[in-house]
């Protein structure tokens, strides 16, 4: 079909973007969204901007930059935002839920298999190969996001500064986000040409076919800000958090394992900015170091499973919760699987509830700002800072994979070789993250058996 060239042509596409068609798309996306946040965002861009033309490039980037600024998983929030923009509140809820539902059930199953059969030599061999590949995939995520955002020296400087701040100075990520936002605001005033959406100078014009929601399409009625609507949403959200938390406290006490898991992941959802890759160090610190729900090796194995299954990478929290609940035997030794499954579902609820509220509540404000540099420039700078944070995370995993006993111990030559194979597959051969993980898993199996 020829691309629509006018807003009238776009309007004719609107009839095709029905809720049923969108529901089928989001369900399909939930099953095929491999490759972590970078791959999922690229897939949504390809489908919704390039192929279906439901939304324009600049409106897509505007929504993405808002989601990158928020605490929580940016890919799932972007799906929720686009679903909401196209089909109101239920469209957003459907998009966000279907984006995570397949991976929730799959990771519960895989976590159980991991605990039940993970000591088998062939299973350990597969994970030995997957871990170096995961490190390469995280580096690729920084490369892909950086390629989309770091279009000029100013944004490069922000990314490098963010890396130094978190790697060398150990500054908390919210402070880095705040600093990047201030730099973007000042940059938007002093060098506005370099803080446009996507980081391109304002005079870099590109032609795009018109879209259902185009650059200059006014926000639909449901996307216009209203104080009463925001108050209703916050009241509903508060109840959806308070009721299950109160039930957990009554049944297990505030110090109960399930209660503390729910509270910890509520904080993770609210306090960690920069998407899934930025939240992982916080989860590692709490789940491994503070509470001891799982070991460092299990955490990296969980990330490997998260990378090799569809859905947002933050779904690794399902693995963390299942392993924690299973090991703690909350319901007794005979009900370890039930304890793990309940913990996984609870943690998923408390992790993603704030994401829906951020999008459904903040979306109308964001829609009123598209094209306004005073709002978009800080978001562009924050996205640039996230690139530096992802590089830091990649180095964090590289250290644990290549030097499993620390720098004082011997480096793992086999893991390094497998990581180099992964780099060649991802960057030179342009293979997908899933294909790379599969090949590296087989290599790990071969090395372990040899």
UniProtKB/TrEMBL annotation:
Which InterPro entries does this UniProt record tie to the protein?
A: Chr_Tranpt_l_chain, Chromate_transpt
Q: Give GO MF terms, alphabetically.
A: chromate transmembrane transporter activity
Query: What is the protein's membrane topology class?
Result: Multi-pass membrane protein
Give the location in the cell: Cell membrane
Q: What stretches pass through the bilayer?
A: 23-43, 90-114, 120-142, 154-187, 229-252, 264-284, 313-331, 338-359, 379-399, 411-427
Pfam families named in the record: Chromate_transp
Name the NCBIfam families on file. 2A51
So what family is this one in?
A: Belongs to the chromate ion transporter (CHR) (TC 2.A.51) family.
PANTHER family, per the entry: CHROMATE ION TRANSPORTER (EUROFUNG)
Protein name, please? Answer: Chromate transporter
Q: What is the lineage of its organism?
A: Bacteria, Pseudomonadati, Pseudomonadota, Gammaproteobacteria, Pseudomonadales
């Amino acid at each position: 079909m020829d691309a629509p060239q006018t807003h009238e042509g776009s309007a004719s596409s609107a009839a095709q973007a029905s809720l049923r068609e969108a529901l089928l798309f989001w369900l399909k996306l939930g099953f095929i969204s491999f490759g972590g946040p970078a791959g999922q965002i690229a897939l949504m861009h390809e489908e919704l901007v390039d192929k279906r033309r439901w939304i324009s490039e600049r409106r897509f980037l505007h929504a993405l930059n808002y989601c990158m600024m928020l605490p929580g998983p940016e890919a799932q929030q972007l799906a929720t935002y686009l679903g909401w923009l196209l089909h109101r509140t239920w469209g957003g809820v459907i998009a966000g839920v279907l984006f995570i539902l397949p991976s929730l059930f799959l990771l519960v199953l895989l976590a159980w298999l991991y605990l039940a059969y993970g000591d088998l030599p062939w299973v350990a061999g597969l994970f030995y190969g997957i871990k170096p590949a995961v490190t390469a995939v995280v580096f690729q995520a920084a490369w892909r996001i950086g390629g989309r955002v770091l279009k000029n020296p100013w944004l490069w400087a922000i990314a490098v500064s963010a890396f130094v701040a978190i790697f060398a100075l150990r500054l908390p990520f919210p402070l880095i986000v705040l600093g990047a936002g201030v730099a973007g605001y000042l940059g938007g005033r002093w060098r506005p040409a370099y803080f446009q959406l996507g980081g391109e100078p304002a005079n870099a014009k590109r032609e795009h076919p018109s879209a259902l929601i185009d650059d200059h399409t006014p926000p639909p009625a449901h996307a216009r800000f209203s104080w009463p609507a925001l108050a209703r949403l916050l009241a509903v959200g508060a109840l959806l958090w308070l009721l299950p938390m109160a039930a957990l406290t009554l049944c297990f006490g505030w110090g109960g394992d399930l209660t503390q898991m729910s509270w910890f992941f509520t904080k993770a959802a609210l306090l960690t900015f920069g998407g899934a890759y930025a939240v992982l160090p916080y989860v590692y610190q709490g789940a491994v170091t503070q509470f001891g729900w799982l070991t460092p090796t299990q955490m990296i194995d969980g990330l490997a499973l998260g990378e090799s299954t569809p859905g947002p990478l933050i779904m690794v929290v399902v693995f963390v919760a299942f392993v924690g609940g299973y090991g703690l035997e909350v319901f007794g030794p005979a009900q370890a699987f039930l304890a793990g499954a309940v913990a996984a579902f609870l943690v998923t609820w408390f992790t993603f509830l704030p994401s829906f509220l951020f999008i459904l509540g903040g979306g109308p404000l964001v829609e009123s700002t598209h094209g306004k540099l005073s709002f978009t420039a800080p978001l562009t700078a924050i996205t640039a800072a996230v690139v530096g944070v992802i590089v830091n995370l990649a180095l964090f995993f590289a250290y644990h994979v290549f030097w499993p006993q620390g720098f004082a111990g011997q480096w793992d030559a086999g893991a390094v070789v497998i990581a180099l194979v992964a780099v060649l597959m991802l960057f030179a051969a342009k293979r997908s993250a899933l294909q790379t993980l599969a090949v590296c898993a087989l290599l790990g199996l071969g090395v372990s058996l040899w």
